[in-house]
Amino acid sequence: MPNKNMTNKLKYILYQFLTGTVGNFLVFLQPKKARRLAENRITLVHKNKKNLSVSERLMRAALVKKLDKIDDYNQIAELNRGFWINNATELFVETEDGFETDFLPNCTFIFDLLKDELGDQRAAFSTLVEIGTGNGDVLNYLSSEFPEVNRFVGIDLSPKQIELNKSKFNDNKKLEFVAADAFDWVTEHGHSNTIFVTSRGVLEYFLEERLQDFFKEIYRLGKSVFIAIEPNGGGHNFETSPHSQLYGNEPSFSHNYPRLFKNAGFTIWHFSQKPWLGGYDKQTFVGAKSF
Questions:
Q1: Rounded to whole angstroms, how far apart are CA atoms 283 and 238?
Q2: What is the DSSP track for the chain?
Q3: Phi, psi of 147 (to 5 degrees)
Q4: Which top CATH class is 98-289?
Q5: Distances from the Cα of 91 to the Cαs of 30, 138, 265, in angstroms?
Q6: What is the pLDDT of residue 168?
Q7: φ, ψ at 232 (rounded to 5°)
Q8: Tens of pLDDT along 89-106?
Q9: Fewer CB within 10 A of the terminal residue: the chain, N end or C end?
Q10: Mean pLDDT of 251-260
Q11: pLDDT for position 222
Q12: How far is CA 226 from CA 44, 65, 119, in A?
């Protein structure tokens, strides 16, 4: 009987054959559909497989393999920023089940840890800011988990998504949604006694230097807590490679979050990692505080 490693290897070989041979053949036979699937690089990489037929999944995998390699960090940052301003809504629709299938079962534990970490100081925090709020589901959830917080602000680059969120959560008067660059908003409106949150892929689009400056700006506000739930490349070892690396097919940046928080003056009170959605990459959980 084949062992588990052999079985996984055979599955990998079969997958490579299907995507490399069958997928490419389907792309050749259906060029219009291929162009539609590949209209946007980031959407192609993240497209929800549940909404695709088997043939479309094979075509998608083959198309992802053909993506041009990008090494220019500034170009990557600009391309990703442009996407999140202009095209993000379609991706949020594609991945809208992620709140139920990923966030609730895999990520909420860190907010239970936050409650324990704050203890009697919970009432001192008057504002919670979610950077990269997306469809607003996480912010809405947090408003019920932290009833002592009076104000919940969701910031996103996409004006269209922000308008959708305002309509969707009109009945929750604690929620505010703002279309803005997070760095600019924090510089102008940030204050002490604030909890900052990112969830499952926001800070990965910052250049390392800008992210470091962003953490320093938040630290200067005064008393604050930061919960970062961010992906990292599966092969990124923070000890041997302390600086940011490219990862994935978008691509985006795998940052050494503990290092960047510490450099800004924060104390790390929680750090853990787990496989992200069962894949090679990792989901990193960081709890940092400025006091």
A1: 14
A2: ---HHHHHHHHHHHHHHIIIIIHHHHHHH-HHHHHHHTSSHHHHHH--GGGS-HHHHHHHHHHHHTPPP---HHHHHHHHHHHHHHTHHHHHHHTTTHIIIIIHHHTTHHHHHHHHHHGGGGGG--EEEEES-TTSHHHHHHHHH-TT--EEEEEES-HHHHHHHHHHTTT-TTEEEEES-HHHHHHHH--SSEEEEEESSSGGGS-HHHHHHHHHHHHHTSSEEEEEEEEE-TT--TTT--S-EEETTTTEEE--HHHHHHHHTPEEEEEEEEESTTSSSEEEEEEEE--
A3: -65, -20
A4: alpha beta
A5: 23, 16, 35
A6: 97
A7: -130, 150
A8: 666 655 667 899 999 999
A9: N
A10: 96
A11: 97
A12: 31, 36, 16
44 vs 172: CA distance, rounded Å: 33
Range with lowest mean pLDDT among 51-65, 150-164, 179-193: 51-65
- What percent of the chain shows pLDDT beyond 70? 83
Q: Which residue has the tokens 């505010």?
A: 176
In our burial notation (b when 16+ CB lie closer than 10 A, e otherwise), range 72-84 reads: eeeebbebbeebb
- State pLDDT tens for residues 3-12: 555 565 566 5
Specify the amino acid at residue 113.
L
Query: Which residue ranges make up each domain of the chain?
Result: 4-67, 98-289
Q: State the Cα–Cα distance between residues 157 and 15, nearest whole angstrom.
A: 36
171, two tokens: 């009945």
